Predict the structure.
Amino acid sequence: MTTETLVPVDDALTRYDPVMGLEIHIELNTATKMFCGCPTEFGAAPNTQVCPVCLALPGALPVVNAKAIESAIRIGLALNCEIAEWCRFARKNYFYPDMPKNFQTSQYDEPIAFDGHVDVEVDGETYRIEIERAHMEEDTGKSLHVGGSTGRIHGADFSLVDYNRAGIPLIEIVTRTIEVPGDKAPAVARAYVSYVRDLIGGLGVSDVRMDQGSLRADVNLSLKPKGSTTLGTRSETKNVNSFRSVERAVRYEISRHAGILDAGGSVLQETRHFHEDTGTTSSGREKSDADDYRYFPEPDLAPVSPSREWVEELRATLPEPPAVRRARLQTDWGFTDLEMRDTIGAGALQVVAETIEAGASPQAARKWWLGEMARRANEQGADLDALGITPLQVAEIQALIDAGRINDKLARSVFDGVIAGEGTPEEVIVGRKLEVVSDDGALGEAVDRAIAGDPDAAQKIRDGKQAAAGALIGAVMKEMRGQADAGRVRELILEKLT
């Protein structure tokens, strides 16, 4: 291991322009795998969802999953791509233990969708991301490296492989080179991955759970000197699994590349591993070029030739475009331009929408996700949808506030309990004894003690200065650990002193 020299990003951007390329892998939610009938349920016991086809046993032949073809076409259409009238699968040859065939059935020069684009917004500016292709392939198995301190293969005592994931249908979305103002590059990368996640989720073809690996991003990055038109050597940071990490990976690689170039070195074309705990990357393997994979047409699968009528039928099933949806939601919710921009920028649009659909008011949903939940996500270095609480649960907690059973302060304790796995919001309230006290008897006794403890405030209220009630309300709330009904406490104070 060598210590790499890092250059502050702002400093690096004075001399270099970053060039990005992003690859997003989407696991489809089909009931069965891409080329066999094995189930695709997440979390099953290792190697229980396998068969001769996905284990590549001799004589086993693949059959294409028609639903996966349909999903691929719908994704391509949503990305404004052209849909191929004729395409076929290819063998991508490489040896790795999680690939039982020693090749991956993928697409190379004949993808099902190509030449698309999407527009993303960052800080009020719109950036067009050109899509080179969206192609079909199969996922690999999952390796588990046992022993060592990193969980990586280096230093492990031994490795295990779970082939349940091998053969699950994948769509890989590949951008063309992305060149935006350097200081915007990390945010644009994050915004693009967030946009695609929302887009694919809206199509209903994947659960796009980054925490479960059903959406994974690879970040390709190179630097070129200011004013140069010659692209630099790129690195590829593999399997980045959160929006925040996409942004951090771009920033780290800008710093790392600049350090190498400033020292007169050459960037190695390689894959890199991203480390969530430190926000750094480490070397994986030297990156292969297309020729190294020895692509050739898959002889065991017939070409795919979707009719134009079918493509147009599928186009008619697409949901409203994201820009149209966002404009409609902003109107429906009554958000200002700034409120909507902040919601989108925080990656909270979908969770806010689902919270509102579950019954919360737009302002309440926005308050919790962009306030309390965003704070927790920042502390944990996680995305909002990885906090362990669902939009439905947030809506349930807000409903308890609206019913007067808890207040905002108590709600934060309910969030703690739900995230800690203590049960539903109702179960947490009961288990932690968090419900607001509204019984006049108990409140009246606490009010009497507060009045006796602060005669100056009590006299000010008697003299007509009702604002002084705040001190007495605070005393009651403190005594009752925030569980008093503050509105009723105020009423009792004024009844007793005016």
In short: DSSP finds 16 helices and 14 strands in the chain.
